[in-house]
């Protein structure tokens, strides 16, 4: 599945930070509404994998609503302002930039707009002291 | 305490997806209209015919065209979901293009969106084990081309130019950049009509000259069919180039 590609990448990022000697206390996975990944699949894999890589780490998920700003008329809108059929949603799910092929500014019809938030998946980590400072080893 | 805010996992994902690819060859040109897409498509088709496991990735995210050369209808043929998306087999080549998701509709993207689209395609495409991945890139030396060089592991660039003085000036700039970055580089001359070659340019920038491809007006009619494309005079010339390229790559 497509989610698995992103899950593997997130796991690799957390592993990398742990390898650098950080203790990861919290992992926040931001799920952009535009990409519309299956949150339950993410949770099922990451909630099991992250504690194995980073013991004690809390895993949180935050859904970011998609927001757009038109470069022509300056108006802002969200996904609820446009109608997308199932096939289009699926295309955007794989490559969110496909939105520019299907969606125009609902106010002026322009395709010249930017995605200001909620595009895709990203993560943020909160870490504490380096392991060598506390003498811990993996 | 330290915070790692807003990590983009896609480039790490891309590295994982490309980890079993032996050689990555972006086909680049400093100018448009030099036949880069056809050189990329024919090189991939020939390498596959020579028994190599080959992928072809069209990374021109705003104007993809490799699918047109191959006769792929992006709304009918779709990648299969399996640990990412697996590019469908087209004439023996694993083929991926953003057109699978934009369906040939206009996709006007500005700087950051171009970068995002490239990262996304690289992060989700599950290539599996390949000998060679040929990457058709957007022309020029702007964001897209530089992103490609940065994101692909150990890119060995195949530069395409025509004998035109305009194209020659462009490819000289491209070769200079590649040399500065210490990247392996090859050059082919497309639409060759006279005796003036680009060998001296290759020598100047320490690029390997792989040969010339004659101008072949018959190619236009063969577009849309891999079999017909492989039957053109252009394809015969590219076959020799593909052989040399595989040798250079140790494949």
TrEMBL record, chain A:
Keywords: Metal-binding, Nickel, Zinc. Gene3D superfamilies: 3.30.2320.80. GO terms for biological process: protein maturation. The keyword Zinc applies. Ni(2+) binds at residue 2. InterPro entries: HypA/HybF. GO terms for molecular function: nickel cation binding; zinc ion binding. Zn(2+) binds at residues 70, 73, 105, 108. Involved in the maturation of [NiFe] hydrogenases. Required for nickel insertion into the metal center of the hydrogenase. Belongs to the HypA/HybF family. This is Hydrogenase maturation factor HypA. It comes from Pyrodictium delaneyi. The gene is hypA.
Automatic annotation (TrEMBL), chain B:
InterPro entries: NUBPL-like (IPR044304), P-loop_NTPase (IPR027417), YlxH/NBP35 (IPR033756). GO terms for molecular function: 4 iron, 4 sulfur cluster binding; ATP binding. Keywords: ATP-binding, Nucleotide-binding. GO terms for biological process: iron-sulfur cluster assembly. Pfam families: ParA. Transmembrane segments: none annotated. This is ATPase involved in chromosome partitioning, ParA/MinD family. It comes from Pyrodictium delaneyi.
